[in-house]
Amino acid sequence: MKKSVTVILILALIFTLSFCLSAFAAADSVESAEASTMRLARAEGSVSVKDEAGEEISFREDMRLYSGNSVATEADSRAGISLDEVKTVTLDESSSAALQQEGKKLRVSLQTGAMYFSVYQPLAFDEQFEIETSTMVLGIRGTAGYVENISATESMVILTSGKVLLTASSGEEYWVYPGQRVVIRIDPEGAVFDATPIYPSGYPDFLREELAADPFQFDSYNYAPAEPRGSSVPSAPSDPSGPSRPSTDTGSTDTSSTDTSSTDTGSTDTGSTDTGSSGTGGSSPFVTP
To answer: Is residue 32 a part of any domain in this protein?
Structure first.
């Protein structure tokens, strides 16, 4: 009888220990799953990483980053963060950003400086990726571009592909399209959006370099349309239906005024044709050919 009781107690102890070990393993697995997709993929120059409490921690390239971590760079430094297999951000020099993750919701808060972001494929319907600055939140679904935190009341976005919905901290919304530079300023009366067209020659050096090095965004930089001569191209619309394409209507060409009696063809100047100054009613300069 005593032998049977002893065996039962031993089996019960083994079962309890097995259950506790499984519970600890499951908890560790959940924690790893939450952070395993975020890594410090690149560190150039002077880079620092802090925990949620603001304490600096030792790091190495390809180390895991957790929700609550922040990354900062000093002068002449850069830091690349792999958020998962299809999302990356790169901090420019003298910049800092904090990472927040809850399930499939991810937010990168740019606290100072500037950042390049690239999403290689559209997010799943249940995913959420946002970039936050002092004045706005960008809803990213599948695009690339540049964000700069200019001051406590002013930020800038340059988009090179896709489109994003910009939501001001005061509540207003604005759609941003490729080839646009949008500066948002928060005044006492609300948000002010200043949208202007921009071409690769006007990009910050940091953005040009990151685009050229990004294999997934290489085409958006190297195959951008040639910059027009003459007057500036109108900025893209804020209509979420998308940017319009340049007009191809040549029916307005009036050939009736051609004087064939003149035999002096040397005065014909084809170099003055300026297709860039055509009023396209708000077309984006980065419409796919």
So the answer is: no
